[in-house]
Amino acid sequence: MLAFIISRILQALPVMVVVALISFAMFAYVGDPVAIMLGQDFTEAQRQALVASLGLDRPFFVQFAKFIWNAMHGEFGLSYRLSRPVAELIQERAPATLELAFCAALVSLCAGVPMGVYTGLYRNSWLSRFFLTFSLIGVSLPTFLIGILLILVFSVWLGWLPSFGRGDTVQIGWWSTGLLTASGLKALVLPSVTLGLFQLTLIMRLVRAEMLEVLRTDYIKFAKARGLANRAINFGHALKNTLVPVITVAGLQLGGIIAFAIVTETVFQWPGMGLLFIQSVNSADIPVMAAYLMLIALVFVTINLVVDLLYYAVDPRLRVGNAKRGH
Amino acid sequence: MAAITSSLGRMLDSDLFWSFRHSPVTVISAVVALICILGAVLAPLIAPHDPFDVATLNLIDAFKPPAWAAEGDATYPLGSDDQGRDVLSAIMYGARVSLLVGFCAVLFSMVVGVGIGLLAGYAGGAVDGVLMRIADIQLTFPNILIALLVDGIARAALPADVHDRVALFVVIFAIGISAWPQFARTVRGSTLVERNKEYVLAARVIGISQLRIMLTHVLPNVLGPVLVIATLGLSNAIISEATLSYLGAGVPQTQPSLGTLIRIGNDFLFSGEWWIAIFPGLALIAMVLSVNLLGDWLRDALNPRLR
């Protein structure tokens, strides 16, 4: 087990180093931070002093090491656009994105799993056909278009739900939450559905395929022969065995949700990290871009690692295979 | 002439065409895709208005609803936008940009991906290890994130006026570079199989250079699945372009694509002028969905195991 964890961490490290290199290269070679910080009037001596104080005259590896050291302490300097520490900006925006991602994952699981079970059990009913057609559309539509269509129907035409912002939020320490107020919860509905729809269709199709697979196996036939109730067979025996791949995919998709939050946050003007990233891409705000890139990479690598470990814990075959190969 | 008719006859007799004719969904998507492509390519000839000709624009004609609505105007079949531009014409010109970027981006990622996949599969060893590791790392991140990042770096690195001139190429590069690993992986897989076949060994025995074996002997035999990935990649590239443009990071304002049109129309959603955003959106859906369904059909039709 320990060897497995260590080997996985060793595989994840190069990813982080590559991403850090890209971030550092953005800092060092894209744009000219010295020119930006000096402004219009300066003497050569002032310029030299600033270059020295920023450590820009040091060798590449020294600068890179310093960058990594600072990154590990959450230091990414000041945003060019807002002149505020990047870490502070991200900390301020993180709760909004994380709450949105959590709700989207919840929506996709809570709707996707039952829909998948239903379409797997009643393959030919008209509702199953409807779900499958709907899932095809969900996979092919761009996220931002789904958001716009939902806004048009539910905010503009019906006027039921707000179309932008988080509503009222409550501060708990540095965490601002929209989950505790009515307007905050209402504001969460459309963005979470928009963000979760793709994952929902994916999970639905996966559960359906797995259910069809499992229902054909001998132990289900045996359970039927034993005279167990359909409910017990379908949910106790069949569904339980479909959940391993579902957990894996849902976990891996969590990273996708956080990345696609960029699009959803722009559509709904949701004040999260994704909107911050887009604003910094549009105004070439390198420190924010670099910090966001590192953060997202860390999230992706961590999720991959956790899913690998979960898989290892859930699926005994992996352990046997490893033992045979002498790990 | 006879050669053309006989090759046409052979095409109409083929398995591929048979499976095409017997799938109504595929025929419909082919027709829709054809309409989209023709409408886009022939836009300067058949569009009712020229949306870029400022002289013909009249602010009195702004915000006309679609022709079938009560205050609609027959000269603007799908309504007009805030500057009196015909929405239908804007869509046709926008689809041109979307398709152009989509095609070029897929072509770019195909050339890069097939090249790298071929090299990795044929060379093997350390080259293979390094190249595939890079592909793995990139596959960890969603395409759209990588495209956004490339676009953002280009924006920061290039002066504003230069960037505006090359923005279209930047978008093509950004989307293309985000999608190469899919091609590389597939091609590498088939190259690994082909590499040890007898015809490659025979070519090696008679002393043909490695580069020539790769390009003239192995390459033609690994291209089959590439067509399927390219078709599905086209719809992904169109979606990526639309998303980038919607986020304001894509093509320049002077060359609006469907995504740009949707972004502009987004502002008028709340004042009731829904048609400015929704019709470009529907055009985008029609384009992406039809290309997707065609790709699905192609995948099934070319896969002998499913027959």
Produce the secondary structure layout.
The complex is a heterodimer of chains A (327) and B (307).
Chain A: H1 2-29, H2 33-38, H3 44-54, H4 60-72, H5 86-121, H6 126-140, H7 143-157, E1 170-172, E2 175-177, H8 182-215, H9 218-225, H10 230-267, H11 273-282, H12 286-314, H13 316-324
Antiparallel strand pairs in A: 1-2
Helix pairs in contact in A: 1-12, 5-6, 5-8, 5-10, 6-8, 7-8, 7-10, 8-10, 10-11, 10-12, 11-12, 12-13
Chain B: H1 2-13, H2 15-21, H3 24-41, H4 43-46, H5 87-123, H6 125-140, H7 143-157, H8 160-178, H9 180-195, H10 198-205, H11 210-222, H12 224-246, H13 258-266, H14 275-302
Keywords:
heterodimer, A: 327 residues, mainly alpha, MetI-like fold, two-stranded antiparallel ribbon, 77% helix, globular, disordered C terminus, B: 307 residues, 0% strand
Tell me what you see in this structure:
The complex is a heterodimer of chains A (327) and B (307). By secondary structure, chain A is mainly alpha-helical. Chain A folds into two domains: 2-72, no CATH class; 87-318, MetI-like (MetI-like fold), CATH 1.10.3720. Chain A has helices at 2-29, 33-38, 44-54, 60-72, 86-121, 126-140, 143-157, 182-215, 218-225, 230-267, 273-282, 286-314, 316-324, and strands at 170-172, 175-177. Chain A is globular and about 90 Å long. Chain B is an all-alpha fold and 307 residues long. Chain B has a single domain, classed as Orthogonal Bundle (MetI-like fold). Chain B has helices spanning 2-13, 15-21, 24-41, 43-46, 87-123, 125-140, 143-157, 160-178, 180-195, 198-205, 210-222, 224-246, 258-266, 275-302. Chain B is globular and about 75 Å long. The A-B interface holds A 14-15, 18, 26, 29-31, 137, 139-145, 148-149, 151-152, 155-156, 163, 255-256, 259-260, 262-263, 266-267, 277-278, 280-282, 284, 286, 289, 293, 296-297, 300-301, 304 and B 133, 137, 140-142, 144-145, 148-149, 151-153, 155-157, 235, 239, 242-243, 246-249, 262, 266, 269-270, 272, 274, 277-278, 281, 284-285, 288-289, 292.
